[in-house]
Specification:
Layout: H1 16-25, E1 29-34, E2 37-43, E3 46-52, H2 58-67, E4 74-79, H3 87-99, E5 102-107, E6 114-119, H4 131-141, H5 160-175, E7 178-179, H6 180-186, H7 193-199, E8 205-209, E9 216-219, H8 221-228, H9 230-233, H10 237-244
Parallel strand pairs: 3-4, 4-5
Antiparallel strand pairs: 1-2, 2-3, 5-6, 7-9, 8-9
Length: 249
């Protein structure tokens, strides 16, 4: 009796790297986990969204259609079906076409994992332009390093806010206490710097001296621990190292 070959178990997040590598190779800027979106692609001023699932189900369809309020360019990415020419598979592809959604198959059994674009999105881009898109654009503008894995769960997300805070912490580690003016004018930090230091959401900073615009801030014990201890900053060590090696610092 012939044995059926078992597929190797994989998580949804395992599809992220092959998808990212594919689109990066096509000149896209790729970011994972952006305000609940699995993958955001940017190229020539156009935003494209990809939502991933281990199987094509109603939850994925609802999610993908909802993303069309952000941009008309929405793909769904699922593992390549065992029988891609089967009648049911073709029926699903027809439904996706009617919804204006793009479809990507990820061959999880190939080495390396391969990507196949089955169809492209077909929704009018001019119909987009909502508040939700503005929020996504703003979040993407605040990111410079992609350290998130699209589809990841139970793991902290490196948001634009956290990335700014990590950058400030890395600068304070290198240069010692600095004022908001120093951080902005001498080291290129943005207009959110004053808010991040005063709000101190993560507890990484402390007021050292001065008042108002002359106030200087340094690292708290928690900030030092986050930068030096992998147990505290392990989820973001790639981000920390990126800012430590930043030539502009």
């Amino acid at each position: 009796m012939k044995k059926t070959k078992k597929s190797t178990p994989f998580a949804e997040a395992d599809m992220y790297k092959p998808v990212k590598d594919f689109f990066t190779g096509m000149g896209y800027t790729v970011n994972g986990e952006v305000l609940g979106i699995d993958i955001c692609l940017q190229k020539d001023g156009v935003l494209t969204i990809i939502e991933m699932k281990k199987s094509l189900n109603m939850t994925l369809l609802i999610q993908a259609v909802d993303r069309q309020s952000v941009t008309g360019q929405v793909f769904i990415a699922v593992p390549r079906p065992l029988r891609p020419r089967h009648k049911d598979t073709k029926t699903v592809e027809t439904i996706l076409k009617k919804l204006g959604l793009g479809l990507i198959y990820v061959n999880m059994s190939s080495r390396p994992k391969s990507i196949e674009i089955i169809m492209f999105p077909s929704v009018d881009l001019k119909a987009r332009g909502t508040k939700r898109k503005e929020q996504v654009d703003k979040e993407l503008a605040g990111r410079s390093v992609d350290v998130n894995t699209g589809g990841q769960t139970r793991k902290p997300i490196a948001t634009a806010y956290r990335e700014r805070a990590v950058r400030i912490a890395a600068l304070l580690e290198t240069h010692g206490a600095l004022s908001v003016k120093n951080l902005r004018h001498d080291h290129g930090c943005d207009e959110k710097t004053n808010y991040i230091l005063k709000n101190n959401y993560y507890g990484w900073f402390e007021h050292v001296t001065g008042e108002r615009s002359n106030a200087a801030y340094g690292l708290s014990a928690d900030g030092i621990s986050m930068l030096l201890d992998e147990a505290a900053g392990g989820d973001f060590m790639e981000l920390i190292q990126a800012y430590r090696s930043d030539d502009d610092m």
